[in-house]
Structures are given as structure tokens and as C-alpha cells.
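User: Can you help me understand a structure? I only have the sequence.
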Amino acid sequence: MSELVLFRCQACKKESVYLCEDLEEPCYLQHCTYEAIEVWCPVCKCGYTFSLANGEHPSNWTCPDCRNNYQLPVDLYTNPMPLLDPTFIEKFRDNYKLRESD
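Assistant: Let's start by predicting it. Here is the structure, written out as C-alpha cells:
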């Protein structure tokens, strides 16, 4: 089941959401001039967000807690996660609830 995940751009502070099908899969997020990856450590059972600076696109990441190193998918940076405006999601959710109650 897909989940909506909140994302806040650190450059402009705008909040967006994205639809995530698997929280354990790494994803690449991009808004304004801000880039980040969100990753999941299977050992710690915890997710992390890493800001990327100056166009860096690492091929792996290290868990800050257990220090395990993980490879990132080769095509990660060619496919940014689509970001949606949270107000759009709320309108869609309200419309769905209205249709559901008819």
C-alpha cells in the first residue's frame, strides 16, 4: 500500500508530499535548489534524510547509527520523486470522501 510522505524543502521551506510505494527503497527528492535522498537502514529499522550539497550524487550511504554502508541504485538520480502540493492532496481526499458517502 502506498503512503503519503511529507517533504520540506530546506531552501524555500515549502512543504510537499510524495507518494511512496516502499518506504525501504531509497528515493531522490529535488525542489528549488535543494536535493536530498531518503533511505532506510534494515539493521536499525529507521529512515534517514541526507541533504546533498553542490550537486553531489553519492553512490552509497552510511547509516549514522550502526555505521553499515549501503549502495544506492545506479539510476536513482535520473528519477526524482514527483512532489505534490499538500493542498491538492487534501482536496482530492475530500472529493473521495464525498463520493464514498454518496
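Now, to help you interpret it: Residues 86-101 form the longest helix (16 residues). The chain has one domain: 3-101. Let me know which part you'd like to focus on.
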